[in-house]
């Protein structure tokens, strides 16, 4: 029996579009208070544009460059974004939203210095607010965490032409440090939140480090947009303590975010003050201000311990960041937190009184867990950290968009009943989604992200999503069911296995991203796949086993599992035999002579053939053997030959076979094996991949090899087996129109005869967190 070599795959899989022949990706809508899939249309990702591709000539593309806040021209075809890291405003042509093009940038730092914090567009101009706050003795603006002085706050607003070469046409000193800007719907006003933010390393008299008050207090600048840009007028609206009664430290106002409604009322968050103010722009007066209050949120995980344990309760001030008008007399806030609080959700308030109309509770955090985006590294801080919030109408339906800065997603809600928002779908984002920009005139949503590190292959981007398009969504492809009223926690799926005799089910396992070994039961009979159950691996005494790194999983015909446990060193690599309950019944280390030649890249897959006395266990070693455990010099098999091992439990014997790896010319890259699966008694399928993601990803393939009856023993040289390409999965991964994932790590042939593959999301550690699960169709020739 042979693995079906997909003709499209052999041709480069250019036609492997979502839902097309050969590969399917499952779509999903659902979650807490879910509306039905596609009931009111949905958003599908069209393109992801890494903004390093738009840096000026002479700038190293590896330099940090971000896309934090974005705005769009009146015709919806030119998008501007702030690049604080580069000191620029970038421009993109989004005429074709499936293929955005860079239009260059404007250097706001120039001779005047400073870093852009926000941008809005009115007519032919981009209005850019620039932070010029220096710290004594420093040449840049990164004074916030420096001691001991509080620092000077300064900033300006630059007016930039949208037309190339994007020249500055006017500039105004603001006399303080700006944060956000918004333009009124009628184009009459711009409003700027002048934060004059606190220095988190400074200690005010009588307080602790980072406390308020830290003079000067913030304010709001109102720009009257009459006539030419160089003739505009600016009014400073102060926020005295008397107007902010009931807020935290009202004598030091800390404005954060602004939004303007059709009546020219400004909604303003004061994040560290835990408050909201409503300002009438024509009269430049504060109409009301009220505390956002505390939220008691039950069922969240507040411990950074590598476990999913949503049993805690927080009682904290909301400390809202973004704010939006979401209906007559109603505002909504994203409760990120900064100084004392953050409540991991968002809230709808009555604007006149501050009465809570609706609060998300733990439901926003639950979305992260349900879709494999729980960020344990942030559990002890602010969790999923809702920061961005936007609101607009698509297809006659009002929607709210809430962005998770730390779990890299945007949740979409139907707001036709603002007192009961209905979650409709989740949109994946690259790392640190900050700017959420609805463009309803073109049925588009833009999401801009601010995290960027070329060294870690994390690049900031602008992603575009289309509304109501008749195409399948590429995310999510896996979700979890609930147990005890909470979604099953999952992520870092590094291994797949069939469930013998049960079509429609698979097993999957998490790797060392989490503190315990977790084996999931996955229902593949519906779209998307659903994780129905989880089994934690235990030791011989029945206690949960810790510090496992499950990189391979194979269900045994008679029940139980073989697990490939990768060690930090060669000696730590071992096969684990588990019983049906997940208890470790046997540990089989690698032969000593092999283990001492394995560096930190060890076991990366396990599969099993036969049963009882005829059972044989195959393993894949990710990289070649080395001359010694330092993994600096190739060993006996050379630099491009990895090993496949065969272990016979009945005799305890090992046999070894060679596997020839592809080559790479990318600096710092290497090619290795990531999975092994038995197709039949003597045919194995392996994943071979590079270490690249995004624009540099090149090798994400499944090959098959036929294994002879006899192999070599010990360190005797091995001859590479003849390999055949079964699937080139790079085009399928690229067809998501997102950031192409690096770790194609799981592959199996299910009891239904279909081949399946999955990517490992690394538990969001220097990764977007997106999981791609592929149904490759029938795997066997008839």
TrEMBL record:
InterPro entries: Mesenchyme-surface_protein, Phytase-like_dom, Quino_amine_DH_bsu, WD40/YVTN_repeat-like_dom_sf. Residues 489-762 form the Phytase-like domain. PANTHER family: MESENCHYME-SPECIFIC CELL SURFACE GLYCOPROTEIN. This is Esterase-like activity of phytase family protein.
